[in-house]
Amino acid sequence: MIKFSNVRTGYGPREILHGISFTINRGEILSLIGPNGCGKTTLLRAACGLLPLSDGEILFHGRNQAEYGRREFAKLAAFLPQVRDVPAIRTDRFIAHGRYPHLSFGRSLTAKDRKAIELAIEQTGVSNLLKKELTELSGGERQRVYLAMTLAQDAEVLFLDEPTTYLDIGQKYETLELIRQIRDLGKTILMVLHDLPLAFSYSDRVALLENGSLLTCGSADQVFDSGLPAKIFGVSSRRVEAEGHPEYLFFQKQMG
Q: Has residue 128 been placed in a domain?
């Protein structure tokens, strides 16, 4: 449903992405991995229309991203950046912000808007947090609220930049389980992850970038078995079975 075709972009005269081409299927999680500075976040920003392309195109259901109006595109796709301000606002009001692309001129919530908000709250399990200020929440709680706001937006596509940043290990698993549940609702998710074991465990497909170029894109097992991730990061890797599920290990190479 999303097709990147020969995408080139960057900042000013500096080109960051060099002819990126791949496709994201509807209703799947695709994770972008690669060393720092390889262009992962740049690709997300380009997909959201926050960076103009110097060449190529990004198609959503066959339609060029550049053809969408801002409000129209906000109904199709939502972007959660890695670094964002934490406003002093009550959680229930913050979640309601997700409905802004759908509001009429009067900016009043309709019954349909309220139903979408209630459903998002139920799906993310944040009903016990609604009367708290966003600044009072833990990192894991706050991430669930951000995802609730995104679901209230009712966008078909979610672009997530490092959704597990600053979370402890338990919160990371909790957040990624929630993202998987969101995928199961029919959403399409493109996310950036630095944590390689989690990227392979929670993604339907993985795309590996290096120096602004796409090295490989395929199922999690295909990309892992290629040996390219371990090679690019200069580590060893191994897949093991744990409680009936594959776990992907990356560890320092033995010297000598």
A: no
pTM over 0.70: yes
Q: Is 197 within the bounds of a domain? A: yes
Q: Is residue 120 part of a domain?
A: no
DSSP string covering the chain: -EEEEEEEEEETTEEEEEEEEEEE-TT-EEEEE-STTSSHHHHHHHHTTSS--SEEEEEETTEEGGGS-HHHHHHHEEEE-SS----S-BHHHHHHGGGGGG--TT----HHHHHHHHHHHHHHT-GGGTTSBGGGS-HHHHHHHHHHHHHHTT-SEEEEE-TTTT--HHHHHHHHHHHHHHHHTT-EEEEE-S-HHHHHHH-SEEEEEETTEEEEEEEHHHHHHTSHHHHHHT-EEEEEEETTEEEEEEEPPPP-
Query: Is 118 domain-assigned?
Result: no
Question: What CATH number corresponds to the domain at position 33?
Answer: 3.40.50.300
Phi then psi for 201, rounded to 5 degrees? -75, -30
Q: pLDDT for 23-39, tens place per residue?
A: 999 999 999 999 999 99
Domain count, the chain: 1
Per-residue pLDDT tens over the stretch 35-58: 999 999 999 999 999 999 999 999
